[in-house]
Amino acid sequence: METVTTIAAVRERVRAWQSAGQRVAFVPTMGNLHAGHVSLIELARQRGDRFVASIFVNPMQFGPNEDFAHYPRTPREDERMLAAAGCDLMFMPEVTEIYPQGSERGTRVEVPGLSRLLDGEYRPGHFEGVSTVVAKLFHIVQPQVAVFGEKDFQQLTIIRRMVADLCMPVQIVAAPTVRDADGLALSSRNQYLTAGERAQAPAIYATLQAAARRLGGGADFTSIERDGVRALEAAGLRPDYFAVRQSADLAPANVGARELVVLCAVRFSKARLIDNISMTRA
Ligand code: PAF
Questions:
Q1: Ligand 1-lining residues (CB < 6 angstroms)
Q2: Which of 61, 96, 136, 185 is the most exposed place for a label (fewest CB within 10 A)?
């Protein structure tokens, strides 16, 4: 595996592969890789002849009171994991390479509507930062396929909409969420949990599963949302939201909707975790 830090170097490698008829698969990450990322990488490798990963902690997607400065950075360990996973090219740019004008002054990409709901309400500007950096990375790498995790369901939906709206020639593939044995979705932010919080956290997925069962049984959305919040609070957690939405556009679900997703966000002392469960109603 080769590691590069400049846009020019990425373009040169990718151009050579694509002129030889090779298909390029891409996984953008913020590093601190774990088994969840490895599953994205495995899926990407099945979809392409060459595999590129980026490691970039994107300042534009962090709010002023969020953890940008402290976000875990483990570049040497990430490099080892990517090499072991069969990565061909790791792109690890400096902030100035991606935002030469500074992340405040450059051009931005916003997916309206979708970026303001759910997590967008609690993290103003977050999804604008995500769509901007992913659009830039797609222009830099020019992959034929890119893989994103279903754990960040709203992010995945926004990227799909951006790609469709901007006619970007990249296929978006979704990778299922990887969980610990007790159901907690893997996330770099799990390491911020105290031992007590880690013991409480599996209640998130258990509550989502209970909601999905009730949805399958025909219960109404309002009572599922209300009971979800109550169950999380009863487990000692602080939910920001627990919402039943239509999978395609995250709009509040219509009575007849079949493709549904239940999403939630929970606050801990030093972390905020998100999770979701999708289901198809008969
Ligand atoms: O999911 C992430 O790790 C980030 O939001 C992404 C897609 C790499 C953009 O910075």
A1: 28-30, 58, 61, 130, 133-134, 152, 155
A2: 96
